[in-house]
Amino acid sequence: MKKLVVLAISAIMCLALAACGGSSGGSSGSSSNSSASSASSSATSEGGKLVMGTNAAFPPYEFYENNEIVGIDAEIAKAIAEKLGMELTIEDMDFTSLVTAVQTGKIDMCLAGMTVTPDREKNVNFSESYATGVQVIIVTEDSDIASPDDLEGHQIGAQENTTGHIYCSDDYGEDSVTAYTTGANAVEALKTGKVDAVVIDNEPAKAFVEANEGLKILDTEYAIEDYAIAISKENDELLEKVNNAIKELKEDGTLDEIVSKYINS
Ligand code: GLN
After folding, report:
1. Which residues have CB under 6 Å of ligand 1?
2. What is the pTM of this model?
3. I need a labelling partner for 65 at 20 to 30 A (CA). Which of 35, 135, 175, 262 fits?
4. At residue 7, does pLDDT exceed 70?
């Protein structure tokens, strides 16, 4: 009998706890500043899970190797998770979904060679920058396009919602830009003559040109930008921890080591 009472009490307590947990963790819309920021995990507690979101079609920052997502961003995230005593998991999604995924707590942080832009800063916080990105122009080897000015009047391919897409739409008009879900698809369109140029970040550009014959990267840079980690505006605690980790990884040489593993300067 006593046993039953104890069981009943602990069952009630479990239910009560579950209800509390549910109301704080589940309501990602209501923004209390403390622990309720992530629906997916306890993104700041030691030993917890740290969920990184990315679009794994962006070599050498993120790409698949033997069914595993690897690359500069994946390794930086792993190093950060280690410093925080957390276990990293990586979720692959469309680039377009990443900012919303951070906002809703589906992921704790986004590392996707993501450029800091004022528009994105309205929706998410960015960490200290960990890399520089350059928007470059890929054309076919026989192209008459030799500089950004020559893009005028041509059809440009870009990855949807990336800065390449956004800047080109601003500079040359939306009708001049065709957006593709991945950079690889944009490059494929260039090869088949559907577009005359592709504007994309320099490192993936190099990887795509290496993998596809008959393409080249123009010398003139189109835009220079900062890559940083996007984190929910409601998770200042994680932002601070990530910033501290980045600082340490810069100081102890780990960041340079990771980069030089993937990029030969
Ligand atoms: N740096 C670009 C941006 O943030 C492209 C990033 C990407 O395609 N993964 O828009």
Report:
1. 55, 58, 95, 112-115, 133, 159, 162-163, 201
2. 0.83
3. 135
4. no
